[in-house]
Amino acid sequence: MREVAFKGGPVATMDAARSFTDAVTVRGGRVAAVGDAAVRARLNPSTEVIDLGGRLLLPGFHDAHVHPVYGGIERLRCDLTECLDATDCLRLIAEFRPDAGWVLGGGWDMGQFPHGTPDRAALDAVTGDRPAYLLNRDHHGAWVNSAALRLAGIDRDTPDPPDGRIERDTAGEPAGILHEGATRMVEHVLPPASAQEYLAGLLEGQRYLHSCGVTSWHDAIIGPYLGYDDTLETYLTADRQSLLTGKVRGALWWDRARGREQIEELRHRRSRARGRRFRADAVKIMQDGVCENFTAALQLPYLGNHGRGMSFVDPDVLSAVVPELAADGFQLHFHAIGDQAVRDVLDALAAATTGRDLRHQIAHVQVVHPSDVPRFHELGVTATIQPRWAVNDAAMTELTVPHLGHRRAGWQYPFRSLRAAGAVLAAGSDWPVSDADPMQAVHVAVNRREPDTDDAPFLPEQALDLVDALAAYTAGSAWVNHVDGDTGTVEVGKAADLVVLDRDPFSLPPEEIGQCRVDLTMVDGVVVHER
Question: Signal sequence span per UniProt (predicted)?
């Protein structure tokens, strides 16, 4: 049986005491010894010794909210995530030559376009008669051209759906952006992707996550969404064929167009989602949209006559179905951006006291009324944060703060306040909404600005200490997803899910944390990525 010893560098165990040690032995896929004395006592001629050379060893990262199938497929399609500006986006779209007629892909950044809304005329100019459907970076809208609108039958007389909006020009014609539920109006004409493409997307997403040090993750949507098919079969196939090297928990999608009649269907889907490395015990409810397009649900209206946003699930319905789902043993995983959405979810969870250890979580928690911050700890609700968003980028300075107003803008991403109030913090990337690299996210959590920029930090009083940011991405995320007994910390008997960084971030100035890269990723003692 292969035995590997890591020596010569610091080890952040992320255990309850957040202790450090100096050596680890791995045998049979488990952590067999911790600490130099225990490791030296086990050394034998067959032990493979890896010299850390001062590099940091820590538990594998656990992404608590991510969409790797979507991210992988987008990387295989027209990928706009690395575009620098609107001109760059249009250039890449013009160069993309798909085998089929449609131009599919996404990743464009709302902050790179005036008012966050590119128009169909610019897209028409580079796509011609080929219909185009390109999701934006946050996956709450799509950029479509005239050909796609024509095929979908969307014109000036088409009404907005209850949970979305068709962006319109000054003449009332569809302008080329479909927000939220309006994206579903195109789904019936989109070309279906094959099972092989979905599997290829998952494997590409998994490869990329491993390269970022992610050993396990929570896929936050298992169900049809934004033109994508249900990915349950994709995961089950990968697991059956031993292609799934990461450890995956999934959240079954709650269809907001339906009601409690879907609960029995969710029970059946949960019973099927029982694989060796994949299972889905949670239900994902998206309660609102995003601030940038005025669909995040707020207690008071946006400035500029933009309304109060959208509550996708009526609060009365939410308060009825959440206790029923919890009583049935489902963990609840919510998307909540605005302060009204956060409060509605907390109110619903307050009525869902079952005495069972379900570990409900609210992801994103962007605008949180100060009076709701202590309720996370009081109700035992985990705050699943996306640190990359807590920066002064264009989406924040041009599309969000001006419409929230100064006082309410100061309630955003209250990471330190939640931590101080006793809330459990988990962390995720929401990739492909934002990049999946945990160390980039940790950098932002600590510095409240992007790496390699001199932007003013965003609400720096809400910054986390480095150890708390890393704990959120390891022990915290493992805890909320019920895998803390097996992974998330470096302790004897736990799975050898480990990451070696190319340097020790605890020895760096805070502004250099984002320079850390992943040298090695190990799952159950098997190397799944090596730089």
Answer: none
Q: Supply the CATH number for residue 127's domain.
A: 3.10.310.70
CA–CA separation, 489 and 249 (whole Å) = 18
Is the pLDDT score of 100 beyond 80?
A: no
Residue 443, domain extent: 193-480
- Assess whether 255 and 223 both reside in one domain: yes
Does any domain span residue 384?
yes
Answer whether residue 42 is part of any domain.
yes
User: What is the value of pTM for the model shown?
Assistant: 0.90
According to DSSP, the residues that pair with 527 across neighbouring strands are: 522
Best CA proximity match to 376, nearest among 364, 356, 389, 362? 362
Cross-strand pairs, 500: 57, 520
**Both 109 and 131 in a single domain?**
yes
Say yes or no: 455 and 516 in one domain.
no
Residue 282 has pLDDT above 90, yes or no: yes
Q: Tokens standing for 117?
A: 């809304």
Question: Which residues contact residue 148 at a Cβ distance below 8 angstroms, ignoring those fewer than 6 apart?
Answer: 102, 131, 132, 133, 186, 189
Average pLDDT taken over every residue of the chain: 95
Query: How many whole angstroms separate alpha carbon 449 and alpha carbon 463?
Result: 10
Q: How many domains does the chain have?
A: 3
Using the structure block, give the residue that is written with the tokens 């936050």.
220
Residues 373-398: tens digit of each pLDDT: 999 999 999 999 999 999 999 999 99
Q: Which of 173, 189, 205 is the last residue of a domain?
A: 189
Structure token digits, residue 480: 């909320």
- Specify whether 268 is located in the same domain as 236: yes
CA distance 241 to 238: 5
Is there a domain that residue 89 lies in? no
Task: Give residue for tokens 């007389």.
Answer: 157
First to last CA, the chain: 25
* The CA-based dihedral angle spanning residues 105, 108, 110, 114, taken in that order and rounded to the nearest 10 degrees: -110
**Domain identity same for 366 and 380:** yes
Q: Residue 340 is encoded by which pair of tokens? A: 């009204």
DSSP assignments along 258-302, one per residue? S-GGGHHHHHHHHHH-B-SSEEEEEEEEE----GGGT-S--SSPP
Q: Domain boundary residue among 150, 171, 189?
A: 189
d(CA 335, CA 341): 8
Percent of all residues in the chain with a pLDDT value above 70, rounded to a whole number: 99
pLDDT digit string, tens, across residues 211-244: 999 999 999 999 999 888 999 999 999 999 999 9
The residue among 152, 198, 192 whose CA lies nearest residue 176 is 152
**Are 152 and 249 members of one domain?**
no
State the Cα–Cα distance between residues 387 and 8, nearest whole angstrom.
31
CA proximity to 520, closest of 308, 215, 283, 261: 215
